[in-house]
Amino acid sequence: MLKRATPLLFNLFNSTKQPVFLQFSKRNASLYEPPYLEGMKPKYPTYDVINVKITGYDYPILESYQRFVHRIAESLDFDVSECWAHPPKKTRVVRYKPNSSNIESEYNLTKYERYIQISDILAPIYPVFLRFVQSGLPEGVTLSVVHHTDFIEESRYVPDKELLDLKAQLEAAGGPITKGRK
């Protein structure tokens, strides 16, 4: 049985010892797709858009570190799309005396956030970027890398209090006047 099947298998191969169906598929691919498109594809996979989030309590150090991360990203030929600052978050910390409700000390802390948006990062260079950035991380500054989401995009804009108050007054007065309404 095996002796009968082997001539059929050898008939499927031509002189180049490749199956006929593989040659046919290669021929069709080159017929419809120009060869320069293969050269334009990236050699390695890429990350689409990531955000480097930097937070800290000391404003000058945070600004300096953001500049450092931005320079490293540009030196590695990453596309730095945007950089922005979030509004600072203020926190009040109170320390009480032992076994009483009397205040011993009070602290007002301000936490600052900076984002650096980077797009089209080659996968083999990404760990090198992270090592460079982590090696220069100052004390008191936290670094995290997150995917870009709609929530991050919406949270970067501060709502206009006056505009919101005017909209509330307009809704309370009966809403905007349209052409169909008298």
Lateral arrangement of strands in the main beta sheet: 2-3-1-4
Can you give the mean pLDDT? 80
Helical content class: 40-55%
Number of helices: 7
Largest sheet: 4 strands, antiparallel
SS elements, strand count: 4
Shape descriptor: flat
Query: How large is the radius of gyration?
Result: 31 Å
| Secondary-structure element order, N to C | HHHEHEEHEHH
Low-confidence stretches: 1-16, 18-28
* SS-derived structural category: alpha+beta
Q: Kindly estimate the percentage of residues that lie in beta strands according to DSSP.
A: 25-35%
Distance between the termini: 92 Å
Which helices and strands appear, and what pairs or packs with what?
Layout: H1 2-11, H2 20-32, H3 36-40, E1 46-56, H4 59-75, E2 79-96, E3 103-122, H5 126-135, E4 141-147, H6 150-155, H7 161-172
Antiparallel strand pairs: 1-3, 1-4, 2-3
Describe the protein's architecture and organization.
The chain is of the alpha+beta class. It has seven helices and four strands. It has a four-stranded antiparallel β-sheet with strand order 2-3-1-4, covered by helices on one side. The longest helix has 17 residues, at 59-75. The radius of gyration is 31 Å and the shape is flat. Residues 1-16 and 18-28 have low confidence and may be disordered.
